[in-house]
Specification:
With 375 residues, the chain is an alpha/beta fold. The two termini are 23 Å apart. The structure holds pyridoxal-5'-phosphate. The site of pyridoxal-5'-phosphate (PLP) has 14 residues, from helix 3 and helix 4.
Length: 375
């Protein structure tokens, strides 16, 4: 049997291990100076001018913190696609609000703004669009909708660290953006995430919420010290990112351009090989501004399961993003709109292996595996 090709393969090297050892040597394991350094590097990479980064321990906590700071609370409704990871829906529940699920567009698999508009009501407080795979959703449409109805936007950019629209990185403008650095993302801090928001007031609120509502502690911890005369000024969670995980994030962000370029190259090879195949629909992008987290194509005419089996026999793993959230027991009762596109897309989507600096042998085997199934 040939070596298994995994769907995800984090790119961990000696530089990551060295950063980690150095951080352990410092001896301040909690949130500290390295957390601050990671935040600064994220801000620099995203090209932030008047916006701020608050690092947290997961993308899910980033979404939760963002919703709370956006003023979402009990009784409010938040609209998000059902075709999304359940982190968004759980974050909405954690904020005390109601989930309202919306359909997606057939071209970019992001939120369908026309269908979202139908769902907006007196209780709607925010929209939570996702940039699926790293490919931008109809962001302009989302912002138009929010402006017309006075809504906040929490952009789920967890798949899209490094994606730009017209030369501007996601998160560098707009309302609130959330990123994930979990084990399989384009850059990882093992687990981690961040919120990017504008204005000093929201920065303070995010910093308080991340650290159990404790004031002063952020300033002191950034110097690898504790504040002993603190006050608790707001509700909060224990969501901060520690120095040890941040040190891994720092090592990874230094190489983010290399990681993204290598992933774009793989995606382009896949799209070139698969676009002539009638039963496949490749992502509708040239990847020029896309930081691809996954490569998910659509297998038409009911052939997906047979293709999965064909690849399995060749030791090639695949994934399925996502099971729509309205199909899950806990969310089945949530208000939702028409799901025509979601319902058909979920029978077609298939995620192929994609790694940073992926081995050529793996790329060739994935291409051969898919092409041989259809020939
Ligand atoms: C679309 C989306 N949003 C949010 C998250 C949550 O990120 P994390 O795993 O860092 O909590 C994920 C994780 O895969 C995701 O795919």
């Amino acid at each position: 049997m040939p070596e298994r090709v995994p769907v995800f393969k984090p790119h961990i090297h000696v530089d990551t291990i060295k950063n980690l050892m150095d951080a352990l040597d410092v001896g301040w394991l909690g949130m500290g100076a390295t957390t601050k350094e990671f935040e600064e590097r994220i801000a620099e990479y995203l090209g932030l001018e008047d916006r701020h980064v608050v690092a947290v321990n997961t993308g899910t906590s980033a979404l939760h913190a963002a919703l709370v700071v956006a003023g979402v609370g009990p009784g409010d409704e938040v609209i998000t696609p059902s075709f999304n990871y359940v982190a968004d829906h759980q974050a909405i529940l954690m904020a005390g609000a109601h989930v309202v699920m919306c359909d997606i567009r057939d071209d970019n698999l992001g939120i369908d703004c026309e269908k979202a508009e139908v769902l907006i009501g007196a209780k709607t407080k925010a929209l939570m669009p996702l940039h699926f795979m790293g490919i931008p959703c109809d962001q302009a449409g989302v912002y138009r909708l929010a402006q017309a109805h006075g809504l906040r936007i929490v952009e789920d950019c967890c798949h899209a660290f490094g994606t730009s629209i017209d030369g501007r990185k996601l998160g560098s403008y707009g309302d609130i953006a959330c990123f994930s650095f979990d084990p399989v993302k384009v850059i990882t801090s093992v687990d981690g995430g961040c919120v990017v928001a504008g204005g000093e007031a929201e920065l303070k609120k995010l910093q308080h919420f991340r650290l159990l509502g404790v004031d002063k502690d952020t300033t002191e911890r950034y110097k690898n010290r504790r504040a002993w005369d603190y006050d608790v000024v707001a509700p909060g969670c224990r969501y901060h990112l520690n120095n040890i995980l941040a040190s891994i994030g720092v090592s990874q962000i230094k190489r983010v351009d290399e990681f993204i370029a290598s992933r774009q190259k793989v995606c382009r090879s896949y799209s070139e090989a698969f676009s002539p195949i009638e039963d496949l629909r490749v992502p509708q992008t040239d990847f020029a501004e896309v930081s691809p987290f996954i490569y998910s194509l659509r297998v038409l005419n009911g052939k997906r399961e047979a293709l999965i089996e064909h690849l399995r026999k060749r030791s090639i793993d695949v994934g399925i993003h996502f099971i729509p959230v309205h199909k899950h027991l806990h969310f089945a009762g949530c208000r939702r709109g028409d799901m025509t596109v979601t319902e058909s897309v979920v029978r077609e989507v298939l995620t192929l292996p994609l790694h940073s600096n992926m081995k050529q042998e793996f790329i060739d085997r994935v291409i051969e595996g898919v092409v041989s199934f259809f020939s």
